[in-house]
Amino acid sequence: MTLWGRRPELVDAINATGVNGDYLPGVQLPDSVRATADPAVAAREADIAVLAVSAQHARPLLEEWRPLWSPSTVFVSLMKGVELGTNRLMSQVIAETTGAGPDRVTVLSGPNLAREIVQRKPAASVVACADHNTAERVQTACHTAYFRPYTNSDIVGCELGGAVKNVIALAVGVTDGMGLGDNAKAALVTRGLAEATRLGVAMGADPLTFAGLAGMGDLVATCSSTLSRNHSFGYRLGEGLTVEEAKKATTQTAEGVASSKAVSALGERYGVELPITAAVVDIIHNGQNPTDVVDALMSRTPKPERFGDRGREAGN
Ligand SMILES: NC(=O)c1ccc[n+]([C@@H]2O[C@H](COP(=O)([O-])OP(=O)(O)OC[C@H]3O[C@@H](n4cnc5c(N)ncnc54)[C@H](O)[C@@H]3O)[C@@H](O)[C@H]2O)c1
Ligand SMILES: O=P(O)(O)OC[C@H](O)CO
Asked: Which of 194, 261, 293, 308 has its CA 20 to 30 A from that of 168?
């Protein structure tokens, strides 16, 4: 297994010690992992390419790498973000930049905090692909005694579940940082799930996907874990840090920060009301005060929890 990294000094350190000290200090990587700073070496003979850079940086890299892939390489996106500007899901970015058809583009999404996985604690996930055989191939490749992947044909639902949960985790982090309690957290998780489901259904996803690992599962993990970068980022804002201060204090990617704007734009494009996402955008991108935003969210017009019995929900 070959791991590509940007910085030659980190690549050399990984090969010399078997440890990625900048991202996973203290974790011994399997002997089978070799690192390289040369993307051509990593792509050469790659049957399966796992893509895990931050979502806003994926397109330029993939464009640069376009000539490197074999025509049969299967792509697995771990990226839980939506591209700013185009509002494209990562599977769409991968398809556009590699030329791969739907049978070669998969998404792996679920409650998968990296630190717990490298500690080999049990986790489950979903491999989504339009082609069931490809999904099964990736499922087999990553199934271990401590990692249990399920297949799913709903790529849009799985991907959107992963991207929207980051935005909701930011919101939960804010209310946790403000000391607003567990009722507020439960309300945001539940209505956040409704928000993700509404948008997903409008985009052609199966609503039941959001009750699964890539929906509810990932919301629970991300909104309740101190390991979550999105939750931690929101928490800092809730404690009173400015957005710039929170960015400085965050060394890894909190995808929801940029993606909140893209998710909000998707809501506008598909005519879906996303009030929690709008609240996160107001705090992070429009300079609004968290206390005012929470007040505004709570004082919205009262609504039924659901309209009718066909799963169409009111805005929350
Ligand atoms: N860490 C997790 O627990 C976890 C779990 C599931 C999914 N993900 C998803 O995986 C993706 C990556 O997250 P992460 O945790 O690895 O983030 P990270 O911040 O730890 O690492 C991001 C990586 O992208 C690289 N990168 C940053 N800017 C770059 C650029 N301009 N060009 C090339 N490379 C660049 C960095 O060098 C780094 O290796 C995100 O979409 C995240 O949502 C993360
Ligand atoms: O640390 P976060 O907030 O990016 O979340 C990591 C994973 O997506 C959890 O499944």
From this structure: 308
